[in-house]
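Morning F.,

Quick status update on the modeling queue. The single chain you submitted on Monday has been processed. Sequence for confirmation:
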Amino acid sequence: MRIGQKLKRQLGFLMSVLCAVSLVACGTKYADAPALLEPVSGTESYREVSVGDVGDLKIAYGSIVPTEHAVFWTTQVSVAEVLVDVGDYVEAGQVVATADLEAAQKAKQDLEEARSLLVQKRELEVQKQQLTIQKLNLKQAGENQLGDSDSAAKTGKEIETEQENANYDELLYKHQLADYDDQIQKQQEIIEDGTLKATASGYVSYVRQFTYGNQVTSSMNVITIADYEDTYIQIQNTTIKDKLLEKYDRYYTIQDGAKISLREYAYTTQERLTAENQQKYPALRMQYEDAQKSAPVGSVIAVYLVRDRVEDVLYVGNDSIYEDDQGSFVYVKNGEQREQRYIETGVSDTVNTEVISGLSEGEKVYYTSEAAWPDAYEEYTVSAPTNYDSMFYTNRYAIADTMRINYTSPYEGTIQEICVSNGDYVQKGDVLLKVRTNEGSAKLAEMRSGIEDMKENRTKAVQAHENTLQSLQQEKQAALTAGQTPLATGTDAQKATDGDAEEQANPNLSSMLDVDIQIENLDFQIQTLDYTYQLKQSEEAYTEASCNNDGTGVMSICAEQEGEVLDFWGDTGGKLELDSDILAIDTPVKEKLALYGGNSKVANGTPVSVQDEESGKTIQGIICGSNGITEGTKEEYYVTTVGDRVYITQSLTDDSRMYYVKLDGNASVEDMTGSQIISYPLISYSDVYTIPADALYTEKANSGKETSGDFYYVWKIVDGNIEKQYVDAAICNSAQDTSKYKKGDVVACIFNGISEGDILAGPVSEEEE
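Structure tokens below.
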């Protein structure tokens, strides 16, 4: 350990320099030292002119992940059964789930009836639009005949508007018709096949857990498949919305000391437009330009993003450069003095500037810093770059051998009879409990009353239609009476008042009223179609509501799958709220080791170690999937193009997030008999320098600089002198833990700015203090 010895030597050297700055040597001009900014604690020294890269640089972090293929139905489906589980290997084309065919038949029938209604109504509405334009043409012709050009022009505008509306309605109708045809075709495909097939070969990484109902839509994954033979780089905490890569010219990572070029793994234009339209942005992806290059699945690489950057050039620190009317200059060490020298500069970044001419590599230039030299340090030699894992240790895990299905009450009322107990094993269709609810008999009565009201309103509508026709006939008869203006009836016919009694009636009035009568009949036919359709829907709903209803208000709630009854604490006579939890059923699934995820994102392929606390025996495995994310989470979108349509889906769960582990070889969760310590890397860097965190220092960015972030630097020892060297770095815990296990040291990972063999002013070990 050296405490203060070098510091004394450097301070002595510095004092001699300060004493000499006002001297003038023969033939050479020496300038006074520049004025400093009165730092609280400052240093001034010399630093070598170096060769390296200068320019705008950002370091992002990318996880090496397997390509995941989303498998989903492209329309709403009731799922009958999912045939695979997380960790299973599937072949492309293999059946992974089946649909409820009865539900698909019913869905198709409903769609066909709705489509038929649309077509029938459209035919009548087209006739109505044509008659409306015909009536306006008659009106305009009459106004021209009367010489009323202003009214005729106004009516002409109405005709144009009506024609535009007709064109729009036709486009809307075609869109609606195409949508119905598409949905009907998809339901027909489900009926004919009834299966969902794997779209790729690989390992199942997610399975939809139907904890509440069995419905899925085109935005929900049923399963996902991870292809570990096809990997890419997923940039952490970044989506395509951020447009990160657009800000930079080139991208690379460093492996085995060499720069390896990267490129964006781009989504198609249609996929990007769809994401923008739906405001659902998938993760930013990258890949190696050279397809032969790769990194282990589950590892994290540093991704260097550069702009206006030059490589292998001379550079000096910005804290060494000064300016006057003649240009930029530095102070170069010349013996015991410093020489003012003008230089030609090139590209700059936040800490360094390229030197085009005026300096040579190895020359020492003066710089100042507000940071104080360490007053005690140990020399630390930088080792070769290596891979680094920031490990996470925990004893919190679960053996997932069932899938819990939660049941909520579809009624409000009181429990009349309990048919099962906790621990009972039930089959699909078994009655779980019976609920007495006013909604039993009351619901049916309400639905019957609604149907009766519908019929009564229909009778009134028929009578209103007949009255309207009679009034129009009377108006028409009045219009045919020589020179008489018809009585006001609320139609578009001419109306006479005391103030305009002398106004002439439109000569085409009787023909216009003929058109009104035809329009009224068309409106009545449209109303009849709507009434017939709505009555049928209501009567079918009444029949369905009667299914588990004995008519006295007692409703039966039945099991929808086999399994063990859990979490039921209700009593006979107890109150139930609508949608309140009543019990759960654990249905059997294949055993899996499950880790609690919390807010962390762990990539598929991440290596996992399972160590028995007592024996020390270790089982290896990998993260092979998860149970998904909660609905509404704005992340982890899957983008899939099927034909000419783009689907954006998510893997959803109704529970807290958990990650599943696939154990290596013949290892099984049955081997985990005692208490286990689970460990896996939260961060896994490739080709980084690691140094003690105490050897890394932080400098707040000046307000005048482009970035508001902090800068990292180290104290580098060169020829016995301490020099400040900026670096790109990240602070990592070598072992993070939520339990009591293996609290680790804090380590600094350095990506850029130091090299193997560099000597740093490191922290003093506790023993030597």
